[in-house]
Write a sequence for this structure.
């Protein structure tokens, strides 16, 4: 039953228009991998018309506790998509 629920959530997210999606970059200042991730996110989200946001783990204790070993972390619609390195093709596929 849990598998069906997860399939429904994925199908529901995938049927959203690009403007209804949200990509979140979780990182910190001075992180070169975070800067690299931002370049990819800006490109892919810009091409697809998907909004994105940036969150700083040094400003949020919960995010720091949850992700400090994985930054940069990329969320798509609130679910973790990847960490450390962002693959442009994989992100594009997740958003289309």
């Amino acid at each position: 039953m849990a598998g069906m629920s997860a399939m429904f959530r994925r199908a529901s997210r995938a049927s959203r228009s690009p403007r209804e999606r949200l990509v979140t970059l979780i990182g910190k200042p001075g992180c070169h991998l975070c800067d690299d991730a931002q370049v990819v996110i800006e490109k892919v989200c810009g091409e697809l018309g998907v909004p994105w946001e940036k969150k700083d783990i040094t400003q949020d204790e919960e995010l720091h506790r949850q992700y400090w070993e994985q930054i940069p972390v990329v969320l798509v619609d609130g679910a973790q998509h990847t960490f450390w390195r962002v693959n442009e093709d994989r992100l594009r596929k997740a958003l289309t």
